[in-house]
Structures are given as C-alpha cells and as structure tokens.
Amino acid sequence: MAHKVTLIPGDGIGPEVIEATKTVIDATGVNIKYDVIEAGAGVMEEKGTPLPNEVIESIEKNKVGLKGPITTPVGSGFRSVNVAIRQKLKLFANVRPTKNLPGIGVKDSDIITVRENTEGLYSGVEHYCDEDKTVAESHCIISKKASERIARFAFEYAEKEGRQKVTAVHKANILKTTNGLFLKTAEEVAKEYPNIEFEDRIVDNMAMQLVQKPELYDVIVTTNLFGDILSDLCAGLVGGLGVAPGGNFGHDKAVFEPIHGSAPKYAGQNKVNPTAQILTGTMMLKHLNENEAAEKIYNAVAKAIQEGEKLTYDLGGNAGTQEYAEYVASKI
C-alpha cells in the first residue's frame, strides 16, 4: 500500500534535510508517494505569497504533510508561514518529543510536550493604546473548548505512547481567569483517564524542575506560549534543536516539521545536522501506522550516533548532511 504525503521542502536548509530524510525513509522500504509543493521565501516572486493555495489544497487532500523549515519573508503579510498552515488546517496540537540519544545531552530525559496551537498570547490580538505608540496591549485568549480539546489530546496521546503521567503547566496563580480556565478544564478531563497520573505545575517552577530532575516528567500539556518555551528547554536537555522533531495534529490532518528554523546562512553547504528532520519522519511514519519502520529509523539514528563514524559537525564529526543520512540508512 502506498501512502500519499504532501512534501514541502521549505527553504534555507529545508531542501537538504528533507532530501536526507527521504533517503532514510526509503531505506525502510515503506512505499510513500510524495506530492511536492513549494512554499516559503523561494516562491514569493513567482506566486506573490509564501503560502500558495496549492499547499493547503494538497494537505487537505492527502491528510498528511512532511515539511522542511520555512523562512517567512519580511513584509509578506504572514506573521509566520508555519502558523498560517496550522491555522488554515486547524492543527490544534503541536507535539514535540525530546529524548536522549546515546552520548548527547546533559540530562536523562524522555518528555513529550503537547502545546495548544491556536490561541493564548499567540492569537495575535494586539494593538497600540495611544497615537504615539508608547503603550501596547496584547490579549491572551483561552477558551474552554480549546483547552478541553488539547487536554484530551494529551491524554489520548499518552495512552497511545504507553506513557504514565500528564502534567498540566500554567500560571493560574497570577493569570487566574485565563490560565485558571485552562487548569480547571485539564483537571476535569483528567478524571476521564483514571489510569494516567495527573498533576499540575506553575510554569516558572516547571522550568527549574525540568533542568534539575527531568526524569520525573513524562507528558506535558500547556498553552501556546509556554509550550513554545518549554519545548525548547527540553530540546536543550537532549542536545539541542538539531535533534528535536515535531508534529502538528488536527482532527483528521497532520503536518510534521522539526522545531528548528531554516538557518539560511547554512543553505547549500551540505553541512547541517538532519537528525531532527529524520526523527520528524519517524513521527509521520507512526502516524501512518508504519511503526516498525519508525522504530528501525530511530534505532539506526541511535546506532549511528553511538558509533560516531560519520557525524555532522555539531555532533563532533565532519560528515556532510547527505553523507550522514546515508550512514544512518546503512544501519537500517
């Protein structure tokens, strides 16, 4: 059976890490037919927009997208192409797993951050309060509907992944109305999942806890802003953004992308580490129920890093992007 997937190479280092990921996925023998669609800064001149309609139409049709990092052009009308894709496709859950690979990172950590993707301070509802633009105001929008949806997703994802605990992260001690609603809703949803432990943490305390004892945490569910920050902290614990995958989920569609950006200054140098994009590919494979292939790739990445013969510069080696990918593929 062939899976149909929308492939968005992106720009900057995107095409290189996507090509590396395809090399590794192909080595598993999984049959994927890619619908390649361009988006980002590279199509602005031709299309007049960094997000042409055919991008959304293709993902709507295929239900699954694999995406490289994208640069949002200045003055394009989009706050972020990535955010626009999530909003247009109603991808309400951003999932960022961070797990130590052999010899990488400063702490033993295996945490999944589930970030609400549609509201909070990232709603973009902000304005200046005076003509001189000396006072600005931003609205934090939290709804019971979105809070319930993301909390339930976190518990369902925890069950699917065999996880034991969900921790809701908030600032309800100060933001009593907005974050209070988020926390109260998460507590209500938790009662429906008695087999999974539930707790909550205030975000500033959580940041300290993650640095001191990340092994105590399993699945984190939180609001948009806090999820963005804490998932980067978790990535730092396991070796940085170069090894941190990600995925965005809606009710019937999903788009998979690494946490890191497009790093245009490294574009075309065959230099960057594609591990985050490759592990993002494993998330996509699991979503397609190709669990065996996903496991093979993860184990191949772990073995390649452990052996250390052909690693990229940030992992302590001098191999190129594609050379590293072919080395990983040889371990499958």
UniProtKB/TrEMBL annotation:
Residues 4-328 form the Isopropylmalate dehydrogenase-like domain. The keyword Oxidoreductase applies. GO terms for biological process: isocitrate metabolic process; tricarboxylic acid cycle. GO terms for molecular function: isocitrate dehydrogenase (NAD+) activity; magnesium ion binding; NAD binding. InterPro entries: IsoCit/isopropylmalate_DH_CS, IsoPropMal-DH-like_dom. The keyword Oxidoreductase applies. Belongs to the isocitrate and isopropylmalate dehydrogenases family. This is Isocitrate/isopropylmalate dehydrogenase LeuB. Keywords: Oxidoreductase. It comes from the Archaea.
